[in-house]
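Weekly sync, protein design subgroup
Attendees: M.S., D.O., the rotation student, P.L. (late)

Item 1: inverse folding check
M.S. brought a backbone from last month's batch and wanted to see whether the design step gives back something sensible before we order anything. D.O. pointed out we never logged the input encoding, so this time it goes straight into the notes. Structure tokens as presented (283 positions):
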């Protein structure tokens, strides 16, 4: 038997559903609380419709069609499309990481880059400067990029989360889930030919896989960004490639893995048809 929610609970449910809608999640399912269970409160479908303005009955929203004209415009002006994503992000307070940040670290580089590097989240230097990979790990990333015969300005660099986690802890699942869609949108605007996931957090978030770095490395994956329904960059046709390598911060702690990292980067270069330098660089 359904109960009627009090005003405060109705508002909380409505806020939660709007929050998921903002993230592009439309399909919500009610879970009936079994007879005799005391936690939670069930509400009638009609009531849910009233408090959220959802159609009744609650059904999965049809996939909005991709507007070919809008998509063509996005592809034609990638810098402008990245600015739109940045504006959508706004002065973000969607998760608790916003409480301690100095700057949102959006992303940097060539919007037309063939290669996109994705890290975990900003550290102290990045938080202070508002740019990804500008500290010690960033210096090493620059060296890795230069070893490939290209410059930092030639690639695009982003992170799974755009605000610094306190004490540089690993971003939590809810933080990645809230911030990640903006990264997915950046990927679908830049449309890199290949993504290099730096470290386990980026690899696991992008691939949706839980595995060791040893197992995740050494492959070229097909990658299809998962986008919110509302993202204008949604293109059902777009997919790219992805490789996993060690995070530069990890390499600073264990430089012996630089050789392995160089093998990963060579795999990327070979895939893109880039000529390989004659000797292994000291990345
Ligand atoms: N580590 C990351 O994962 N990202 C940065 O931007 C800097 C350090």
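Designed sequence read out in the meeting:
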């Amino acid at each position: 038997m359904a109960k009627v929610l009090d005003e405060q609970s109705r508002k909380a449910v409505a806020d939660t559903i709007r929050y998921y809608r903002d993230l592009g999640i439309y399909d919500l399912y009610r879970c009936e609380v079994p007879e005799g269970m005391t936690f939670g409160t069930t509400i009638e479908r009609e009531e849910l419709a009233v408090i959220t303005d959802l159609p009744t009955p609650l059904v999965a929203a049809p996939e909005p069609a991709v507007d070919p004209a809008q998509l063509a415009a996005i592809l034609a002006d990638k810098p402008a499309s990245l600015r739109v994503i940045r504006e959508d992000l706004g002065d973000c307070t969607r998760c608790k990481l916003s409480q301690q940040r100095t700057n949102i670290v959006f992303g940097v580089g060539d919007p037309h880059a063939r290669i996109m590097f994705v890290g975990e989240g900003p550290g102290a230097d990045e938080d202070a400067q508002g740019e990804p990979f500008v500290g010690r790990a960033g210096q090493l990333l620059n060296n890795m990029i230069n070893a490939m015969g290209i410059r930092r300005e030639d690639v695009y660099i982003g992170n799974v989360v755009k605000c610094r986690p306190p004490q540089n802890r690993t971003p939590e699942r809810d933080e990645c889930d809230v911030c990640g869609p903006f990264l997915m949108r950046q990927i679908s605007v830049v449309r890199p030919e290949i993504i290099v996931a730096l470290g386990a957090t980026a690899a696991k978030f992008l691939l949706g896989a839980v595995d060791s770095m040893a197992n995740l490395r050494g492959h070229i994956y097909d990658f299809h960004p998962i986008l919110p329904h509302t993202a204008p960059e949604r293109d059902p046709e777009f997919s790219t490639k992805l490789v996993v390598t060690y995070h530069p911060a990890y390499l600073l702690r264990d430089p012996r893995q630089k050789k392995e990292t160089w093998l990963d980067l060579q795999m990327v270069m070979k895939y893109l048809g880039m000529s390989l330098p004659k000797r292994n660089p000291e990345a």
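Discussion: The chain has two domains: 2-52, 68-272. Residues 40 and 79 are 46 Å apart (CA to CA).
Action: P.L. to compare against the previous round before Friday.
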